[in-house]
Amino acid sequence: MRKKTRRVRVGRVEIGGDAPISVQSMTKCDTRDVPEVLRQIRALAEAGCDIVRVAVPNEEAAAALRDICRESALPVVADIHFDYRLALKALEAGVDKLRLNPGNIGARWKIETVVREAKARGVPIRIGVNAGSLEKDILEKYGYPTPEGMVESALRHAAILEDLDFRDIVISVKASNVPTMIRAYRLLSEKVDYPLHLGVTEAGTTFSGTVKSAVGIGSLLADGIGDTIRVSLATDPVEEVRVGWEILRSLGLRTRGVNIVACPSCGRVQIDLVKVAEEVEKRLGHIDVPLNVAVMGCVVNGPGEAREADVALFGGKGVGMLVVDGEPVRRTTEEEMVDALVQKVEEMAAELRAAGDPEKVLRQRRARRHERADGDAAAAAPPVAGGSTAADSRLPPAGPRGS
């Protein structure tokens, strides 16, 4: 069960409470280049990003925020380090949230100055603790960036905000070491009811960073900890959003777009399943309706996955069967099977959008499908020779190795 936290509003997006777990990213260009910043923000919004952060390293970047905030498709967070005056300029520009690094922002009076202005404008603050930039006295106390030291830093600075009766707080305690990050968030969650922003900082390249983020963020979300996430990857920020959504979808926390189930391929498969699955994923990337799509290649798990999916492609020996709501509807050649699947998914997505509430309609369709499957199972004929069933005979042959 997800831990109940305070609710904080960032522009039109809410973090914490029972609000959906939001997905964040960060622009990866010079903030002074306003057209490029806005281009990246539009791409992030289309990918499903909820909140975007921009770096504010100097006064020119702070000045650019006014145009960025006015045109942005997403709530904008100003990422502030070292100079508290940049935070004040960001607030004047109209940002929706500040991220302050307590390890480098300076004296308490500087933080208090920013907090008073943020409070007057109704702008929340994320206390963004990072293992790589802890305060000197905390490093001296613990010897190195420990989870306990990171939490101490976060609580110290939360207390400053609380002393000024400021409660619109979000906290993060990020580290590039996954076990350290997990331990820090678990400790912090025991001590505060502020919403937590999860992330593995400097996670790495697309491959390694995705794995680290899935383990770190996913472990905490599975424990009910976390209210908003940012996957940090050394790649296009859109990929961060795609990975973030996949983490949420894998845990059943949010759904957006097509969920593809594909068998990993083995010696029983007699189509180029890997190529087919990759092409399907690429060509269905524009679908925003949360459909379950299966791409299967043999009779071991194929029939079961095909029945569970909203749309499925079950291939064998150069041919494929398109299955919709558990029922075979069309036989295709291997060359045509991807086109057939994509066409059917696009048709179903359009139909569901036209219905007004795609997720509700999908739940109803899936419930009917399960009821029908239960009835079919009760009336199923006994296995025939070779271990296959009557249901299997409706699907394309998988060749001698799969029969």
TrEMBL record:
SUPFAM superfamilies: Dihydropteroate synthetase-like, Nitrite and sulphite reductase 4Fe-4S domain-like. Its cofactor is [4Fe-4S] cluster. Pathway: Isoprenoid biosynthesis; isopentenyl diphosphate biosynthesis via DXP pathway; isopentenyl diphosphate from 1-deoxy-D-xylulose 5-phosphate: step 5/6. Keywords: 4Fe-4S, Iron, Iron-sulfur, Isoprene biosynthesis, Metal-binding, Oxidoreductase. Residues 376-391 have a biased composition (Low complexity). Residues 356-403 are annotated as: Disordered. Binds 1 [4Fe-4S] cluster. GO terms for molecular function: 4 iron, 4 sulfur cluster binding; 4-hydroxy-3-methylbut-2-en-1-yl diphosphate synthase activity (ferredoxin); 4-hydroxy-3-methylbut-2-enyl-diphosphate synthase activity (flavodoxin); iron ion binding. Residues 259-346 form the IspG C-terminal domain. GO terms for biological process: isopentenyl diphosphate biosynthetic process, methylerythritol 4-phosphate pathway; terpenoid biosynthetic process. It is an enzyme of class 1 (oxidoreductase). Gene3D superfamilies: Dihydropteroate synthase-like, Sulfite Reductase Hemoprotein, domain 1. [4Fe-4S] cluster binds at residues 263, 266, 298, 305. It catalyses: (2E)-4-hydroxy-3-methylbut-2-enyl diphosphate + oxidized [flavodoxin] + H2O + 2 H(+) = 2-C-methyl-D-erythritol 2,4-cyclic diphosphate + reduced [flavodoxin]. It holds the Pfam family GcpE. The keyword 4Fe-4S applies. Residues 5-245 form the IspG TIM-barrel domain. The keyword Oxidoreductase applies. Its EC number is 1.17.7.3. Converts 2C-methyl-D-erythritol 2,4-cyclodiphosphate (ME-2,4cPP) into 1-hydroxy-2-methyl-2-(E)-butenyl 4-diphosphate. Belongs to the IspG family. This is 4-hydroxy-3-methylbut-2-en-1-yl diphosphate synthase (flavodoxin). It comes from Caldinitratiruptor microaerophilus.
